[in-house]
Amino acid sequence: MIQLEHVNVIKKDTVILTDINLTIKKGDKILIKGESGSGKSTLIKSLLYFEHFQGRILFRGEEITRKNLCFYRRQSGYIGQTVPLFNENVRDFLMIPYRFKSNRKLTFAHEWMMELLKGLNFDETVLDKNFSELSSGEKQRMMILQMLMLDKPIYLLDEVTSALDKKNIKAAVSLITKGKNRTILSISHNQEWEDYCNRVIEIDNGKIEKDSANVGKGGN
Predict the structure, then answer these.
(1) Which fold would CATH assign to domain 2-219?
(2) 31, 115, 125, 136 - which has most CB atoms within 10 Å?
(3) CB 160, CB 175: distance < 8 Å
(4) Rounded to two decimals, what is the model's pTM?
């Protein structure tokens, strides 16, 4: 589905990623592990062309260029480590993606939203709360809910459960990884991710040191 060929990232003479070669198959649930500064976030951002890199990235066998970059990005949902500033109610926060030109053909599915709210351990009253007044963990869960509502085939996630307790980590990971054809790359230090991922990639000093099958729930 996605291939990285000899991808390198160098910033201000500092090598961040070195000769990354990686094949991501449709439906893969991949956990990316490594020490802080090892290049994990840069790898995720490179997959969306948020980083300048050397090398090639192919999607469904076709090299990604400026001509097809918008189409490729529309297939992907991304959540980074930064929580957005938003001073309106949660319901309006969930509507934000539907205002983008690329998503205008999508229908806001109220029933799907309610199902996701329940799956992430929220009740309906949260929709009328001001987003800025939510806790860090609640904001993270709302970012996940907003992303899942768009039902993208690919999700690229950077520490999206870092502020959650164990109960909510399990609920979030279970929802995110649900679906045989959904492709996930997730950076996380939470052990719960290993239970639902079929591959674990370990990065050290900008290099892939290990890419192994996982025998957790995702690997069955």
Answers:
(1) Rossmann fold (3.40.50)
(2) 31
(3) no
(4) 0.92
